[in-house]
Design goal:
Blueprint lengths: L3 E6 L5 E6 L17 E7 L1 E2 L5 E8 L5 E4 L9 E5 L4 E7 L5 E7 L2 E2 L8 E7 L8 E8 L5 E4 L9 E5 L2 E8 L5 E8 L11 E7 L8 E8 L5 E4 L9 E5 L2 E8 L5 E8 L11 E7 L8 E8 L5 E4 L9 E5 L2 E8 L5 E8 L11 E7 L8 E8 L5 E4 L9 E5 L2 E8 L5 E8 L11 E7 L8 E8 L5 E4 L9 E5 L2 E8 L5 E8 L11 E7 L11 E8 L5 E4 L9 E5 L2 E8 L5 E8 L6 H13 L20 H6 L1 H10 L17 H13 L6
Parallel strand pairs: 4-10
Antiparallel strand pairs: 1-2, 3-5, 5-7, 6-8, 8-9, 11-12, 12-14, 13-15, 15-16, 17-18, 18-20, 19-21, 21-22, 23-24, 24-26, 25-27, 27-28, 29-30, 30-32, 31-33, 33-34, 35-36, 36-38, 37-39, 39-40, 41-42, 42-44, 43-45, 45-46
Helix pairs in contact: 1-4, 3-4
């Protein structure tokens, strides 16, 4: 078998691959590449410390050009932005035939402010005293697109800074390329009142004698925006000050720049009523009999701006006084200068109801038994503007009266003239529960003996919307009543119509102790003689048959602890009580622990061998002790051992003559007891 491979460039830019193998031949076309395809690129340097460099690539030799930067996605445009300075970028161009060309481009860097000088020129307007109204205006050269900042504040397009207090200010100007220049200027304080004289002129209205009704009106020249002050008071925009009595006043005018001028004005009293006579004339409307519906209308001459008073009351702008009954009235008129005139007017009675008959008709809704839910609705003829009264009560616009119980009522109607008419109306009770029987059923929980833990739950038939009451108490929505002791109770149910039904319920106390069998077990520690303290007995109680036990002894107070200590020998009554108060008692005997055999042998030995020898027996009490009692023997065990067994130096040997000293066997009786602990119980 022969195998060969050859490559041939044909005029149609197709490479034919001929494979001779098993007499087969295959030609695979490959897209042609124009040998003239190339890419060129130019770069725009980044500004100093910025990533804003650019590359612009151009390809020739073919069509459908695309560009990739540093292995990125191909794009139609050869323009790449946001590039870092001092970095090499691999730019690859590709045409539609897949031909590629690569160029390496390094981005440069430049400082736009190198060699640039920004000159800042400042002008100022000084501030007024104690004001922040100074300003600084900045202009700059050496660039374009300037923004401005004062005292390191934010930059702004305007070079004007206003509302400045006196002081030093640093202004910075920044060009569009970020180049900055600065300048310093001082804003001083000017005197806005230099060369300005404020002149105050006034007109006055003199006060009347004894009154505070004078006024001063001030105006000023020497500026604009004047405000005015009276006697160094608060400044106001108006130059008029009213309500002034006679006296001397100081007027101060202040212009918009704070420049002031002052003048003094004297006000004196005058008599505005000299030569003036105030005349009062009246017209009247007579009141009806026993009514206060008369009126007087007064007018006056002898001045202007009149106000009027009746019977020395307060003055009012209107000369009309209404709501008057028959009687004599004094009318006073007062003009704007306080000059007065007086007249007296008599009012008599008239009868507006002559020939008028007021007729009252009524419709009723009778109340239900024992309720106040009836109503009367009245209407009337014989006039207009009627109001209505029930049983001489207050009149009201409505003729309807509700919430009424059974009974006889008088309805009175009154028209706009005060003419009256009345009608008697009787309401009778209606039994709305006729034919309705309310039946109450209950379930109970009996209380335990001596407790209030019983309950009654009631339900009812014969209506709807039931509420329930126990022993005539307040009604409630729930039919359950708890916390009840033994006894007889009355449960009442009431439906939505007020119909009632009741039943008696008896609660019987139950004894929770009937089924309780408390068993007491006592562990006794009997008293041991010759031990301190002597009341060293104790009883520990255990109870079964219930829960929540407390304990007492000999009828004392119950306690949670089941241990009673510090007991003498004797008979004790132990009591146990459970959670429900059930009790059980049991008698317990605390006995005396008997003598031990070793102590008994010693006691018998002393009694026998000391007879007649003066061994502190039979009341002998030498050296402050004797051996007539058991406890003295226990307490003096050491002396007994030293005198009878050890024969310790300084101790008298016992027993004395005529008794011989103890034998070895007798000494052993004492030694065994001492070695065992020399106690009463050994």
């Amino acid at each position: 078998m022969k195998k060969s491979m050859s490559y041939k460039l044909i005029s149609l830019m197709v490479i034919a691959i001929t494979i001779v193998q098993f007499a087969c031949k295959h030609e695979i076309p490959i897209p042609p590449c124009d040998g003239n395809f190339s890419v060129t690129a130019t770069q725009t340097p980044a500004t100093l410390n910025q990533n804003n460099g650019t590359i612009t690539a151009t390809a020739t030799g073919g069509s459908g050009f695309k560009y990739s930067l540093n292995g990125g996605t191909y794009q139609d445009s050869g323009y790449f932005t946001g590039l870092e300075p001092f970095r090499n970028y691999n730019l690859v161009g590709k045409n539609s035939s897949g031909c590629t060309d690569t160029v390496v481009v390094q981005i440069g860097s430049y400082d736009p402010c190198q060699g640039v000088v920004i000159n800042v020129t400042l002008t100022k307007t000084d501030a007024s005293p104690n004001q922040t109204n100074g300003s600084v205006t900045a202009t700059a050269t050496g660039g374009t697109g300037f923004t401005y900042s004062i005292n390191s504040g934010p930059f702004q397009t305007s070079g004007i800074f206003s509302n400045l207090a006196p002081g030093d200010y640093t202004v910075a100007a920044k060009s569009a390329t970020g180049c900055i220049g600065t300048a310093v200027i001082t804003v001083g304080t000017n005197n806005p009142c230099a060369g300005i004289t404020v002149v105050v002129s006034t007109t006055v209205v003199q006060p009347t004698s004894g009154q505070s009704n004078g006024s001063i009106t001030a105006s000023a020249t020497g500026g604009t925006g004047f405000t005015y002050s009276l006697n160094n008071g608060a400044f106001q925009t108006s130059g008029t000050f009213g309500g002034l009595a006679a006296g001397n006043y100081t007027i101060t005018a202040k212009n918009s720049t704070g420049c002031t001028g002052v003048t003094t004005v004297a006000l004196s009293n005058n008599n505005p009523c000299a030569g003036i006579t105030v005349t009062v004339t009246t017209s009247v409307v007579q009141p009806t009999t026993n009514q206060s519906n008369g009126s007087i209308t007064a007018t006056a001459t002898g001045g202007t701006g009149f106000t009027y008073s009746i019977n020395n009351g307060a003055f009012q702008a209107s000369g009309t006084f209404t709501g008057l009954a028959a009687g004599n009235y004094t009318i006073t008129a007062k003009n704007s200068n306080g000059c007065t005139g007086v007249t007296t007017v008599a009012l008599g009675n008239s009868n507006p109801c002559a020939g008028i008959s007021v007729v009252v008709t009524a419709t009723t809704v009778n109340p239900t038994i024992g309720q106040s839910n009836g109503s009367i609705t009245a209407s009337a003829t014989g006039g207009s503007g009627f109001t209505y009264s029930l049983n001489n009560g207050a009149f009201q616009a409505s003729g309807t009266f509700t919430g009424l119980a059974a009974g006889t009522y008088t309805v009175t109607a009154k028209n706009s003239l005060g003419c009256l008419g009345s009608k008697q109306v009787t309401l009778i009770e209606v039994n709305q529960c006729a034919g309705i029987t309310v039946v109450v059923t209950t379930t109970t929980v009996n209380p335990t003996q001596g407790q209030s833990n019983g309950s009654i739950t009631a339900s009812a038939t014969g209506g709807s919307g039931f509420t329930y009451s126990l022993n005539n108490g307040a009604f409630q929505a729930s039919g359950t009543f708890t916390g009840l002791a033994a006894g007889t109770y009355t449960v009442t149910a009431k439906n939505s119509l007020g119909c009632l039904g009741s039943t008696q319920v008896t609660l019987t106390a139950t004894n929770p102790c009937n089924t309780v069998n408390i068993v007491i077990t006592a562990v006794i520690v009997h008293t041991t003689p010759c031990v301190t303290p002597t009341n060293n007995g104790s009883i520990t109680v255990t109870a079964t048959g219930s829960t929540g036990f407390t304990y007492n002894i000999n009828g004392g107070a119950y306690q949670a602890s089941n241990v009673f200590a510090n007991l003498n020998a004797g008979t004790y009554l132990i009591g146990v009580k459970d959670l429900n108060g059930c009790t059980k008692t049991q008698s317990v005997v605390v006995a005396v622990v008997p003598k031990g055999p070793l102590f008994t042998n010693v006691r018998n030995l002393i009694t026998t061998r000391c007879s007649g020898s003066g061994c502190h027996m039979n009341g002998a009490n030498a050296a402050g002790y004797n051996f007539d009692t058991d406890c003295n023997v226990v307490v003096k065990w050491d002396q007994i051992n030293k005198t009878c067994v050890l024969y310790t130096n300084g101790w008298v040997k016992m027993p004395k003559s005529p008794q011989p000293l103890l034998t070895a066997a007798e000494k052993l009786i004492i030694t065994n007891w001492v070695n065992a602990g020399h106690k009463y119980t050994d």
